[in-house]
Specification:
Blueprint (H helix, E strand, L loop, with lengths): L1 E6 L4 E6 L2 E7 L3 H9 L5 H10 L3 H16 L10 E5 L6 H13 L5 E5 L4
Parallel strand pairs: 1-4, 4-5
Antiparallel strand pairs: 1-2, 2-3
Helix pairs in contact: 1-2, 3-4
Length: about 120
């Protein structure tokens, strides 16, 4: 059983196999990416609101999730017993969870996805 905890808020993936920590990956948080795109120094919640209002959230999210999945997640031998746990404040928006789930399904990942609004 593989478990990937993907934390959008702090830019970290923790990978467990059979309840043993295998690897910790670090990357730019989703808020860092949005801040880079909009050259803004607003608080995280304001950046997210700005991205949603300007209707740029879906393309940024798509690119961000694709990059994470392609770079850090080895999915060739995923089964229904494997999990992707997505964590972060932005998952308080249901449409974001739905969009991420759609991206994962389009990648043909054979695993279960769960979304949490809080940290690990």
């Amino acid at each position: 059983m593989k478990v990937y905890n993907i934390n959008f808020d702090c830019g970290r993936i923790t990978y467990f196999e059979y309840n043993s920590l295998v690897q910790v990956y670090r990357f730019h948080s989703f808020y860092d990416v949005c801040e880079i795109v909009f050259s803004s120094s607003l608080p995280a919640d304001d950046i997210l609101a700005k991205v949603i209002v300007k209707e740029k959230i879906i393309p940024i999210l798509d690119c961000y999730v694709q990059m994470l999945l392609d770079t850090f997640i080895v999915s060739m031998d995923f089964t229904e017993n494997d999990f992707l746990y997505f964590r972060g404040k932005l998952f308080s928006y249901k449409f974001i969870s739905c969009e991420v789930e759609k991206i994962v399904k389009n990648k043909n990942f054979n695993c279960q996805c769960y979304f949490f609004e809080s940290e690990e």
